[in-house]
Amino acid sequence: MYGDEATIRRILTELGDTWAVVGLSANRSRAAYGVAQTLQRFGKRIVPVHPKAETVHGERGYACLADVPFDVDVVDVFVNSALAGAVADEAVAKGAKAVWFQLGVIDEAAWARTRAAGLEMVMDRCPAIEIPRLR
């Protein structure tokens, strides 16, 4: 497993409340939409990151992570595994504290690079499933 219980707890409760959700659009049928809503319900500020740069759940969107003009604590990745590694590298460059790859998103090389850069990381898990367990 990529992300033990202690790491999951640390990311969800200690590392900060600003979550960039990469792949989040206004499409209500996509998983990112509901997960972002759950994160908000648990007190997280979400930052939509999608090429369309749409406002979602009342938060202004940005076309890419580098365009976000403020610090983000966690980068939650809703892109396919082939693209996820590049997003993890962008998270490192952005100065994020953690990267979270959603269910089904797996890139072991990105895991190694991200951890080597000093960031916390969880892979193939969903924060909307994990966060209610911690309350």
Enumerate how many helices there are, as a single number.
5
The rounded Rg comes to 13 Å
Strand order of the largest sheet: 2-1-3-4-5
Major sheet summary line: 5 strands, parallel
- Return residue spans where pLDDT drops below 50 for at least 5 consecutive residues: none
The protein's oligomeric status is single chain
Q: Strand fraction band?
A: 15-25%
Q: How many distinct beta strands?
A: 5
Q: Quickly give the structural class.
A: alpha/beta
- Helical coverage, percent range: 25-40%
Amino-to-carboxy terminus distance: 22 Å
Return the average pLDDT rounded to an integer.
96
Approximate shape? globular
Q: Give the topology string: H per helix, E per strand.
A: HEHEEHEHEH
Task: Describe this entry's structure for a reader.
With 135 residues, this protein is of the alpha/beta class. Helix content is 37%, strand content 16%. The chain is built from five helices and five strands. It has helices at residues 5-13, 31-41, 81-94, 108-116, 127-133; strands at residues 18-22, 45-49, 74-77, 98-101, 120-122. A five-stranded parallel sheet has the order 2-1-3-4-5, sandwiched between helices. Helix 3 packs parallel to helix 4 (108-116). The radius of gyration is 13 Å and the shape is globular.
